[in-house]
Amino acid sequence: MKPEFTERIKPYGPASYTRPRDAATLILLRRNAGRTEVLMGKRNANLVFMPGMFVFPGGRTERADLTAPRTGSLHAGDAERLVKGMGAKGSLRRAEALAMSAIRETQEETGLLIGRQAGSDRVQAPRSWDAFARAGVVPDLSAIRYIARAITPPGRPRRFDTRFFAADARHVFNPDELIANPEEELDEVRWIRFGDFDGIKVPDITVAILDLLADRLKDDPDLSRDMPVPFIRVENRRFLQTFE
């Protein structure tokens, strides 16, 4: 982790302990003519958590993410790290649910479907996955890679144990249907050139994750290799980065 990250962000405290909730987010990358862009959305200024900030699509993992139809498989190394990171309650199904929640939240907040066309029969899915069912699209786990994990420090108004996933925009089924959905907390969504955030409010943790992703892309431009995943958290009131 870059030293300036720990200098900019100080853990709150003392504060009552709030158990972080499982969450996931998706960093969608669009590449064209040597240029890489990332999809981000601007959170409503009235929200308690990260108001007015540009963030990746994402949110809490839901029970329906365990049971919704899917195709493809998580990368074997990613699946192993996700399961191990959940401790005694870890399972492949729960690991898949984390990735599925990143795909679902991306659809809810931006309208984009990460997946493949299903067969002729209508896909049956839980209510929160109805947009996929109506479009006849099945979410594709093989399209995304696990690239980082971060737990919100104690004392924040909301705490999440967030897994960050990345995917190439070529896996988007409906690329021309990008929308902002204020009901899902984002007032604006847009493609932003990777590394060009002048005049844009971005949370420090988001900057840190983008820096980590940039380093990974240098060695693994296609996100195809099995590589360690950075894990950022607070221990003893100090930020710590290890690898899963």
TrEMBL record:
Organism placement in taxonomy:
Bacteria, Pseudomonadati, Pseudomonadota, Alphaproteobacteria, Hyphomicrobiales
**What keyword terms does UniProt attach to this protein?**
Hydrolase, Magnesium, Manganese, Metal-binding
Q: Write the protein's name.
A: NUDIX domain-containing protein
Q: Name one GO molecular function term.
A: metal ion binding
By its UniProt entry, which InterPro entries does this protein fall under? NUDIX_hydrolase-like_dom_sf (IPR015797), NUDIX_hydrolase_dom (IPR000086), NUDT19 (IPR039121)
Give the source's domain of life in one word: Bacteria
Q: Which cofactor does it need?
A: Mn(2+); Mg(2+)
For whether the record's keyword set contains Manganese, the answer is yes
All copies of domain Nudix hydrolase, residue ranges: 20-215
